[in-house]
Fold this sequence. Notes:
Elements: H1 23-32, H2 79-82, H3 96-120, H4 137-145
Amino acid sequence: xxxxxxxxxxxxxxxxxxxxxxxxxxxxxxxxxxxxxxxxxxxxxxxxxxxxxxxxxxxxxxxxxxxxxxxxxxxxxxxxxxxxxxxxxxxxxxxxxxxxxxxxxxxxxxxxxxxxxxxxxxxxxxxxxxxxxxxxxxxxxxxxxxxxxxxxxxxxxxxxx
Length: 161
């Protein structure tokens, strides 16, 4: 699914890699809700980090680098200090047309996910509770019945049990 968000060097539509507030995000926003985007206010920034490329992934972790972008500490400065503009990259390059493939790819995936879930679990069919909880079978059976018919409401579940 990430191919729709990648830069041209990695088979995508964009000039720059996907990061917060950048060309990619701004293009998606222009495609979906252009009335909220004021391109005349776009501010470009130069992104940087302490380590060479290839270690820490970018936005959305779509490049499959070993360290997810949101999981590193110390690979670069903290964003609120080095990017006070709130932008990592070049939002000025945004165009709605660049985002069409990313949006279509995402929507195709959501439809596939929906269809796969419905195929595996049609209405009224749930996975066997023994695979997803360690609560007593009697309690789960009452929860699955619901608050009527001698069952229990889902809101009766609390931690600690």
